[in-house]
Amino acid sequence: EDDETWKIAINFRSYADGFFQEYIDRYEAKPFFYEDGRAGVVLPLGKAIIETAQAQESKNPPSFAYSPKEFKEDEAKARILETVVTKHVWYQKYVNLDQKFDIMNQDKMILGTMYQYVGYRRMFRVNRKFKKGTKLSEGKFDLSEELFYDDLVVENVYPQDVWLHPLATCVEESPWCFIRKRFDYATFLETYSDFDFYKNVNFVEKGKWVDSTSNGGITRKKISYNQQDEVVVIEKWDKMKDAVTIRANGIEIHYG
Fold first, then answer.
1. Which of 8, 94, 207, 236 fits a disulfide with 228 by CB distance 3.0 to 4.6 angstroms?
2. What is the pLDDT along the chain (256 residues), one digit of tens a residue?
3. 222 and 207 Cβ atoms separated by less than 8 Å
4. Among 15, 12, 41, which Cα is nearest to 29's?
């Protein structure tokens, strides 16, 4: 069901992907050609306008706020979220919120819109200690796992990586939302290292997307030739079912 819903969303939104790429190419002043072979005129005017506006905003950064939806209880949630982000998350070195807002403002000017995700993340790291009674040259370690991060996170999400219901004009109107994230394999393992929350992480194969077949079997397809180390994570936020499904290269690693 999730696969079919995602395919519908991708097909409906595919027309916009060309516009996103066109905006990026114009900002970068890349040459382009019409179908009949004529060369298009490229001027770096768009880039100059955006960078001028960004320089002005850096002197007087825009403020932000979390707006509640139509439900009364959302007003309190919005106030709490805004307080937590401005008073706590902003000072988390791991989050680096200042840089994220600078990037979001720039890309918003290029693409016309941007998304931002506020969530929670728990990460672990491997701690290596030399074994007692061994020489340094032997390279023998005692390995232990320790908590690395346990707090809120804020992530920028590009519009090319978000799919909404075909009839929705914004996130609030959509009964579901797909979000795509890309990682190299090592970063994926670090990001999804909370095995109390995520499952099947060790079954995820880098560079290969797993699809189910009609007879209950599975197929493995290479993502692309030059992305053999990549893991593509797809999150489905289903408002109607009040559930989140997370798949990594086609393997379900969370449902709840």
1. 207
2. 567 787 778 787 777 777 777 777 777 766 666 666 666 655 566 667 777 777 777 777 666 677 787 778 888 888 888 888 888 887 777 788 878 887 888 788 878 888 888 888 898 887 777 677 776 666 677 778 888 889 888 889 988 899 999 888 888 889 999 999 999 999 999 899 998 999 999 999 888 887 654 444 445 555 554 567 889 999 999 998 999 999 999 899 999 9
3. yes
4. 41
Pairing relation of β-strands 230-238 and 176-184? antiparallel
Tokens matching residue 99: 């840089």
Distance separating alpha carbons of residues 172 and 98, to the nearest angstrom? 26
Nearest of 129, 112, 101 to residue 16 by alpha carbon: 112
Q: Scan for tokens 């959302």, then name that residue.
A: 74
Q: How far apart (Å, rounded) are the C-alpha atoms in residues 165 and 173?
A: 8
Nearest to 1 by CA among 228, 241, 219, 192: 241
Encoded tokens for 197? 């929350």
Q: How far is the C-alpha of 1 from the C-alpha of 212, rounded, in Å?
A: 11
β-sheet bridge partners, residue 238: 176, 243
Q: What is the DSSP string of 53-82?
A: HHHHHHHSPPP------SSTHHHHHHHHHH
160 in Cβ contact with 20 (< 8 Å): yes
Specify whether the CB–CB gap between 152 and 88 falls below 8 A: yes
Q: Which amino acid is at 164?
A: L
At residue 7, what is the residue type?
K
